[in-house]
């Protein structure tokens, strides 16, 4: 048993909300030192062979360059497995890791906040068949702080350095301190997994966690967001459809430039600048240059391309202007329910109350007990059969897991039937 596992075993029976280690031990170096970066086919073959021969779960992490590069591709992959040690793989130099994925077979992957890393891992051929998400496990176990550093400290008694989490991981060569940080991120991940499994078992929640992990592993790839320009920061200030068209044109123009240059869109043009142009509707480049975000550092060619986008929006016929709100795939925003459907608003209030209470009793976040969107959909269009069985069927249709259905269907059925229709 490792030192980390002994610490975890001693801590596992404690209340997960307590600070488990008043004096965490700084974790400064990986056990076998910083592994070399795997950046060619021969080195990758050696890593594949080592991890195929390893045993037990595989700790996996990915580093991206959010805020620096376009998209969410991976720029470093970290792995660790008993018998194989740790590995750092450069997915830019080795863009196809499907062979590594195959070598892992049906081994369980251990990730922290798995849904953040799975899309970029899928792009390079790495798709787990089974996984254990230590962040989600922490939520289900009732931990108040579920970041990796906080979990390792509270559960295992070690302090991880987190100073390089937001650096530009597309940098080549990667500095040694960054590589040390990356290797340490997977150093104790399997130890953390083992301790959390015991914690969940002690609380009677392990089966719930396994259902959640299976749902993540089998979920289809996320679909591209419709009308992503609507998520521009400050968009709430833009009220007129013509102004919305300016936001859309500038957002799309910025996205094309960012993709071509492989930089974060925010480094091309800020959201604030897009909104300012939409509100100001400048008539020419000179007027545009006077707005915040289009100052003296911006060249004439750049001003011309942004002004051209504004002119495209200005020239659109009314029939092609965006609608005030996005097309809804589901119920409207709850703030409008009282006017649109008072009965639905009453059902939502009652349903939220019972879900909140039950989540508190189970010591887990409300959104993990049942997705808020599921509660809204159920209350906006309640099943014709509002019995416990009917509500359970509706919850399953919305994607609720079996444990969620068992915990909430009886409560929701009672809440829905207790709300008297408005006169």
Automatic annotation (TrEMBL):
It comes from Streptomyces armeniacus. Residues 1-36, 317-343 are annotated as: Disordered. It comes from the Bacteria. One of its GO terms (molecular function) is 3'-5' exonuclease activity. GO terms for biological process: nucleobase-containing compound metabolic process. Residues 240-320 form the HRDC domain. PROSITE patterns: HRDC (PS50967). Pfam families: DNA_pol_A_exo1, DNA_pol_A_exoN, HRDC. Gene3D superfamilies: HRDC domain (1.10.150.80), Ribonuclease H-like superfamily/Ribonuclease H (3.30.420.10). This is Ribonuclease D. Residues 1-14 have a biased composition (Polar residues).
């Amino acid at each position: 048993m490792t030192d980390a596992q002994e610490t975890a075993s001693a801590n596992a029976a404690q209340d997960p909300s307590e600070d488990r280690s008043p004096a965490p031990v700084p974790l400064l170096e990986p056990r076998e030192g910083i592994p070399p970066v795997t950046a060619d086919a021969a080195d990758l073959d050696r890593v594949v062979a080592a991890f195929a021969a390893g045993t037990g779960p595989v700790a996996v992490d990915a580093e991206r360059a959010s805020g620096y590069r376009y998209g969410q591709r991976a720029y470093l992959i970290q792995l660790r497995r008993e018998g194989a040690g740790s590995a750092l793989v450069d997915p830019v130099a080795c863009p196809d890791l499907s062979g590594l994925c195959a070598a892992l077979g049906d081994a369980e992957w251990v990730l922290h906040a798995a849904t953040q890393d799975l899309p970029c891992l899928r792009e390079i051929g790495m798709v787990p068949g089974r996984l254990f998400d230590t962040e989600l496990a922490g939520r289900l176990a009732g931990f108040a702080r579920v970041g990796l550093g906080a979990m390792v400290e509270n559960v295992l008694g070690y302090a991880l350095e987190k100073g390089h989490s937001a650096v530009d991981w597309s940098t080549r060569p990667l500095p040694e301190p960054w590589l040390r940080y990356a290797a340490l991120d997977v150093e104790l991940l399997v130890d953390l997994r083992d301790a959390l499994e015991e914690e969940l078992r002690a609380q009677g929640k392990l089966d719930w966690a396994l259902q959640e992990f299976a749902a993540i592993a089998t979920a289809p790839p996320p679909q591209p967001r419709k009308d992503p320009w609507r998520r521009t920061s400050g968009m709430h200030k833009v009220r007129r459809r013509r102004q919305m068209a300016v936001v859309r044109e500038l957002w799309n123009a910025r996205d094309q430039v960012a993709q071509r240059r492989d930089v974060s869109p925010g480094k091309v043009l800020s959201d604030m600048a897009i909104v300012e142009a939409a509100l100001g509707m400048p008539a020419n480049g000179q007027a545009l240059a006077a707005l915040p975000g289009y100052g003296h550092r911006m060249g004439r060619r750049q001003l011309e391309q942004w002004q051209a986008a504004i002119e495209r929006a200005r020239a659109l016929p009314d029939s092609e202007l965006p609608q005030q709100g996005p097309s809804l795939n589901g119920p409207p925003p709850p703030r409008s329910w009282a006017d649109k459907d008072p009965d639905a608003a009453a059902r939502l209030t009652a349903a939220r109350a019972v879900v909140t209470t039950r989540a508190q009793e189970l010591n887990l976040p409300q959104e993990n007990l049942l997705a808020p969107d599921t509660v809204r959909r159920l209350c906006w269009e309640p099943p014709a059969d509002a019995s416990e069985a009917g509500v359970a069927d509706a919850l399953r249709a919305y994607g609720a897991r079996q444990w969620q259905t068992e915990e909430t269907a009886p409560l929701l059925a009672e809440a829905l039937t207790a709300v008297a229709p408005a006169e």
